[in-house]
């Protein structure tokens, strides 16, 4: 809470969450929230049964609704269709991110909900303010940046991906927009979130590079588009990502400078904007 600035904003805005949670967002947004809540981590005991005393489903719905009310510019990022990627690539965002926050926080429901609300605000409105927009320029840019980092660090994998003709937006959008929630196993995601609040969005690139590093040999065997897509999907849930301590150690074994990330962002963003303007 303190590292992210969420605690200070929460104490500076008393009653904001309590007021927002009593209101209802627009019908089109609320209907999506109601559809998404029961689909969030259904295998997890805390999100499996709404009638259980352990269930966090009600808290998840309340936080998402309050966030949509308080921050209508962002609203509720449930899904985006990315026709420019060559596929209708659908990704979910806020429900999984919020669920991870609810899992890690402790206390009475109303206290945990308010803390999750302000942590979500810290992530969406302050740490990653340009991610959740209609055109998703920043997310697409960072997918491209990750591709450039692969070119610099894992040339063979980069070459294989290029040979398969796979767009990095197709491969990595869900990684970035969900902040690896619903991508990595929950225990690993919790540790990635810890690092995210400590080091900032640089961690998102560390996690992506770590996935490639841990599956380097496997990825080199992929020789066509569907095989590569399957490998990228499967490598997020295998034994090497389940071992969260090994995964985090791998993340921080990779040398990565923020100045390089910012340089690549400056180079990649105009290319993304050109795609937007293409007929």
UniProtKB/TrEMBL annotation:
Its biological purpose is as follows: May act as a GTPase-activating protein for Rab family protein(s).
Stretches that traverse the bilayer? none
MF GO annotations: GTPase activator activity; small GTPase binding
Q: What SUPFAM superfamilies does this protein map onto?
A: Ypt/Rab-GAP domain of gyp1p (SSF47923)
**Record keyword rRNA-binding present:** no
Pfam families per record:
RabGAP-TBC
Tell me the organism: Fasciola gigantica
Keyword annotations from UniProtKB, A to Z: GTPase activation
Name of the protein in its database record? Growth hormone regulated TBC protein 1 A
Q: Which residues form the Rab-GAP TBC domain?
A: 1-200
Under the heading PROSITE patterns, the entry gives:
TBC_RABGAP
Q: Does the keyword Transmembrane helix apply?
A: no
InterPro entries attached here?
A: Rab-GAP-TBC_dom, Rab-GAP_TBC_sf, Rab_GAP_TBC_domain
């Amino acid at each position: 809470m303190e590292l992210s600035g969420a605690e200070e904003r929460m104490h500076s805005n008393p009653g904001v969450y309590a007021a927002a949670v009593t209101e209802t967002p627009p019908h089109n947004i609320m209907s999506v929230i109601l559809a998404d809540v029961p689909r969030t981590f259904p295998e997890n005991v805390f999100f499996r049964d709404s009638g259980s005393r352990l269930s966090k489903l009600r808290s998840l719905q309340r936080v998402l609704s309050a966030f949509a009310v308080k921050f209508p510019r962002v609203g509720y990022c449930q899904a985006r269709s990315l026709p420019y990627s060559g596929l209708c690539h659908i990704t979910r965002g806020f429900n999984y991110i919020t669920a991870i926050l609810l899992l890690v926080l402790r206390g009475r429901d109303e206290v945990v909900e308010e803390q999750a609300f302000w942590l979500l605000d810290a992530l969406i409105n302050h740490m990653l303010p340009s991610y959740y927009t209609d055109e998703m320029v920043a997310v697409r840019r960072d997918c491209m940046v990750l591709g450039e980092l692969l070119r610099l660090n894992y040339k063979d994998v980069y070459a294989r991906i290029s040979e398969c003709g796979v767009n990095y937006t197709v491969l990595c959008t869900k990684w970035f927009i969900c902040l690896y929630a619903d991508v990595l196993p929950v225990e690993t995601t919790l540790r990635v979130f810890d690092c995210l609040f400590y080091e900032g969005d640089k961690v998102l690139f560390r996690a992506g590079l770590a996935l490639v590093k841990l599956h380097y040999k496997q990825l080199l065997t992929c020789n066509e588009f569907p095989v590569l897509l399957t490998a990228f999907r499967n490598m997020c849930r295998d034994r090497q990502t389940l071992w969260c301590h090994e995964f985090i150690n791998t993340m921080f074994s990779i040398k990565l400078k923020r100045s390089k990330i910012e340089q690549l962002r400056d180079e990649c963003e105009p290319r993304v904007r050109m795609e937007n303007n293409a007929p």
